[in-house]
Amino acid sequence: IVADNKKWIPPLDYVFITTNFYNEDLFFRYLSSIYHAMVLLAGNDLGPRGQLQLFFTTVALGAGAIINANIIGELAVILTKMNRKSTNFQTKLDTANDAMRNLGLPEKLQVEITGFLTYSKSLLESQQELEEFLYMISPSSRQKVLKFMFTTALMDNPIFQGSQVVIDFVSARLDTKILLPEYIVVTQGEMGD
Length: 193
Prior knowledge:
Layout: H1 2-5, H2 26-41, H3 51-103, H4 107-136, H5 139-156, H6 164-171
Helix pairs in contact: 3-4, 5-6
């Protein structure tokens, strides 16, 4: 379009009212055209001259706006997904704070409860991540992972020292549970399974 009527002047040559663009070598004109195409898609006006150039510039500016909107929209979706966990937790924390304020709880107790909620969040997430990981892998790999996790702790226990057979037997039957503080695991006198 530009080469047909040679009316277009690059924006940097506006001050001279004329241009030497059409007399430059092919490589310079090619690079300059790519540069101005990128500038056009980014939403900058290139000073079209004539109806055909004006039509083309209008279409290119519209296409550039759509492309930019798509890119920005995709980035917004990615950022939203990245922040979903913290946003959900913040909503729960806001609900707890509102409830504590409405109940008129002392500030010291409110701080203690907020600290507990924050601490327990990471523990619960760790448990969920571990369970998802163990669910994704094969049963044989799961046994190897559990054996690795428990063997060190069992070897440090004086009851199991020196008995690799017993450690292997016990570690194959153990499971991991991350529990919150003050959670009752077993009470005295309770019958076992």
